[in-house]
Amino acid sequence: TDLVAMYGEDYNISSITDYYWYRVDDDTVQISFQNQCQHELFYFAKDNVCHPSNQIYHKTYYVDDTDPEIELTVEGHGYYDSCVDYLKVGKTFSLEAEDNHSCAAGIESIFGRYEWINETGVKHYFPAEGDPNSINGSVLASKYGYTESEIADYWWYYTNESQTEGFFMEECTHILYYWTKDNVCHRSDIHDITFKVDGSEPEAWLN
Known about the structure:
By secondary structure, the protein is mainly beta. The protein is built from four helices and 13 strands.
């Protein structure tokens, strides 16, 4: 559309005439971007007697459409055999989250919880309700839309960092669950790993 011919010389500036423009006959418009990349948005308004806004507005958006990832590592004093991970009591494991692409929004939080199973098979769940640095999964469901029962039905420890560490002090089986989210609410898969935690010294004897 020739805006100069339609609305007058107020529109005869290169920042308008050098480009094509979408037109919306309303005072409100909703815009969404579908491609993961950098977007430059330019916009202006006009009133019903053809006055343009006093400037061309410009805003840059970095559109993120990729889920973050999280990795667990154990440095030393761990052992893997026949699909079982063994871990020494008190040995630190690390969780590191990444959001790696050109328009990544960045990691907001890491979430984790665990169950330990005593010698009679009874499960104990951590964090317990109201533990420090924990959040109810139902809050995550209402705030971020994470309504899956594997999130919403449990309490979670969380940190607003991209790295964190943990350890277990109970000599028994532990099941660790962990995941991460970025700053625009994409989340990773929920991972789980089972550790057999060993807190006993071996014995040796001579026959």
